[in-house]
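To close the chapter, one final illustration. This time we ask the reader to focus less on the individual chains and more on the assembly as a whole: which components sit near each other, and how the overall shape emerges from the parts.
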Amino acid sequence: MDVLAETRPGAPAPAATRSGPRAAAVLSGAVEVLPSQREGRTSTRFTVAADETVLPGHYPGFPIFPGVCLVEYVHRSVLATAPAREPGLELVAVESTRFTGPVYPGDALTADIDWKPVDGVTWQCRAKIRSGRGDAASVRLRYRRGTDGASA
Amino acid sequence: MSGQREIRGRLPHRYPVLLVDRVTHVDPGRALTALKAVTCNEPWYADLGPDTPEEGFGYPKPLLVESWCQSAGVLATWEAPNPDVLTGQVMLFGGMTEVEFHRTVLPGDVLEHRVRVERRVDDTVMFEGESLVDGETVMTVGRIVMAFRPAEVLRPEAS
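The assembled structure is written out below.
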């Protein structure tokens, strides 16, 4: 058996995770959490599979991974790497994004996310997404502590 | 009012990411209002099981942004439509600032996107606006930047 099978793009997401089947999902591939490099930073990996849900329509005959899907990738990464004491973070704002390079099917992406507490109930997450060709996007999201266990 | 013929004549997006249903008002070069009906038949909901909490059916916020941006795209190309991403000038999503989400949007909701041109500098257009459901603001858009560039910049060999 191929040892890479468990982490291949498009592999079924693990059941019953906060970021998995309990919420509507734009990405069909799984976001893989990487070991943390330092305090306050988390990292993930995601490969854009050729059969990602959005690609047939973006665009027919010329697939490009949409910028908003990079935002979704960061959002999924934030939920997947949130501190254990923050089970219900809610995305309240996209503070800023800059799309700096196109992303195509087959691209392997990494996201490094720096977590900054703003006040007792708000986090700012600054993410840098890179592909094999270099920088793809900078994304800054704002989260608020939710009132229950479901993330949105 | 303008329907799918006009929208598909201006946007290259298709299923499952053609996220504008109808244009209800256009002031060319200045402002546009468009509708998008959210339905549980969209693929983002396909795999949700019986344990999904109600808020799990919230429309993915990045897609709210995409739908609003496509409305901006219809406005930006109203007078010079080019639904082809392989030739001519194509519209690129440059970035956004201060997009705030105020309320969860659920299947059955009809989004009303209000788009205004804030500024235009050469081939770059900046938009602002908001989205409403039943008169209640669900998202405010501080600024979205769209850039028109030759189609060649999108090709893998060019990057």
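Chain B has one domain: 4-158. The longest strand of chain B covers residues 136-150. With these observations in hand, you are ready for the problems at the end of the chapter.
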